[in-house]
Amino acid sequence: MSLFTLTHTDGSARRGHLTTAHGVIQTPAFMPVGTQGAVKALTAQHLEDVGAEIILGNTYHLYLRPGDELIARRGGLHKFIGWSRPMLTDSGGYQVFSLSDRRKIEELGVHFRSHHDGSAHLLTPEKAVEIQANLGSDIAMVLDECPALPSTPAIIDTSLELTARWARRCRNRFLELKGEGKGHAQFGIVQGGTFPELRQKSAELTVSIGFDGYAIGGLSVGEPNETMYQVVEQTVPFLPVSQARYLMGVGTPIDLVEAVARGIDMFDCVMPTRNARNGQLFTSEGPLNIKNARFAEDDEPVDPACGCYTCRRFSRAYLRHLFMAGEMTGGTLNTLHNLSFYLDTMRRIREAIAFGRFEDFRQSFHRTFTRRALIS
Amino acid sequence: MSLFTLTHTDGSARRGHLTTAHGVIQTPAFMPVGTQGAVKALTAQHLEDVGAEIILGNTYHLYLRPGDELIARRGGLHKFIGWSRPMLTDSGGYQVFSLSDRRKIEELGVHFRSHHDGSAHLLTPEKAVEIQANLGSDIAMVLDECPALPSTPAIIDTSLELTARWARRCRNRFLELKGEGKGHAQFGIVQGGTFPELRQKSAELTVSIGFDGYAIGGLSVGEPNETMYQVVEQTVPFLPVSQARYLMGVGTPIDLVEAVARGIDMFDCVMPTRNARNGQLFTSEGPLNIKNARFAEDDEPVDPACGCYTCRRFSRAYLRHLFMAGEMTGGTLNTLHNLSFYLDTMRRIREAIAFGRFEDFRQSFHRTFTRRALIS
Questions:
Q1: pTM exceeds 0.95, yes or no
Q2: Residues of chain A below pLDDT 70
Q3: Cα A311 to Cα A172: distance, rounded to the nearest angstrom
Q4: Interchain pair B73, A331: CB under 8 A
């Protein structure tokens, strides 16, 4: 049975849903990032209030602290963190590769040292699957190598072949564990840098293994936006129409719209939550920086077109005060708003696709969102 | 018309209510502290959820940032921070006196330098009244001098006489502003250190001016608990039965029970909120320190006898994880619990007094709360 059900198409844009072990997710979907078992500054109640249908957990962080085995003994990540809706976990690879001089890659896996205490660890493809099974994730990701961009075709080719061999080992271990009743669904990851023929090769290798869905990885790592859109456009045709497509680590509101236009169904990004804590708030007329002095006496809500708790109840002047005073409450209210903005955007995208008006929506979103680059 | 209505007495304990410009508060009442226009780590919704009927705002902080005049232009503190229930503000004096070498007291008032930017300010009794009128507080406090303890009778006597002269000036300015439609109610503050005859003198001087309620100040500054209880017991007889009595800056859950037993109606303290952020959680069986390793695999709620959101949904193991990981969400969930514990304790106190069972409640609270000093 396929995880994904495609219900509408509109150009390359797709409307559908994913049926997971913890419920159904409407797509295109945005997943707030709950790195260490919490979306920073929010409670589970806040996430329900803004209508998050799925969140992402970071395997690297949870493996190190409090430990996946401890979480398994608590009944899994859902029970441990009090979140009963679907959860996707990454493989831990991305964070491990970010450790640069504290990690070493070989065929077997990645040796790395914890950023907490320097302790030595080995993350193999099998181990990445086992950790995610301990967490009880609804959608687990394979361990892939994420080479830095820009890079040469030779380096990227070697890397994507390693990623494909790891993907095969991940799938084998996943199917073994599934036979024991552990694990729900697993996505493969397509690499290949910015080279269309290498993206095609990686996609074909990954699809030939056979996963419950496919991610496009290795993007949003500093390359120009147009390059990213182009790579997505060139990769999507090699992915099965009948399965979900997840663009990892993306992105700005415009990126979401542009990637949906190219056939992407799922996203995750720390941008709405991290930027909120830094005072950058997204609005239908573009981002604004709440610490700017011009908001000191501004009685308007962050976004008059937004119906979130923050916008219904508080002014820009109050949010600016909380930011300047360093009050945690400001981080919470800002995060609530930015996530509301992202999740509302996804709702509007889904609605537009269902009614065959996605291109109109896309044009109109661009006009209003980018009219002013930054209100400041 | 009196602000305070006494509905029940049980020994020296009193049950009643305060009728303010923004609604009725049941007493004995505990006021969470919202220093800079927010109770740290919480939103207004959280405060409503835990049933806070009144919060306290700090004049010193709000005067410096964002400024009382800016808040007045926003429509007052209630509107600015999105809180429609009653609010009490202190005079700013306590924080100014804490600046020690950055302030100088004279008859006119206190000269001080801002802890933000070193700018020079003068806080006079009149100014303290005006700032609080700008904030629109439901209950304003007079500017008093808080001498450090221990001290000599001579020093305390000189200080309480200054406090009484300042109280008269505060009252005069308050009544002037009230004539102009600004300001709602004002409490006087009794000083006198730990000397019964000086407490009596300060109480008589303050009551002779005539306020809408009376606070006992200058306690909970490091003196033994028993001394504090004794001073409260010796001071209360000199306060009018028909008006509310507020013990400033107090205290532990046991302190609240003991002060109610001696006739106190109102409290404020940063303890439940500050300790929450530091991982100390109050329970019906005493405090526990959530960072202790023994909670790493503890699936129980913080307090199985508590019905707050945190206890209904999350385990000690999860709260410990959030604390160890430095997640803000932990601060929010811990604060929600500690405030719930304090406000529930006040509800149980009020219920016990109304049913004439306060002494039973008090004995039983002591037995369960202090059975173990600290679960760790």
A1: yes
A2: 1, 372-376
A3: 48
A4: no
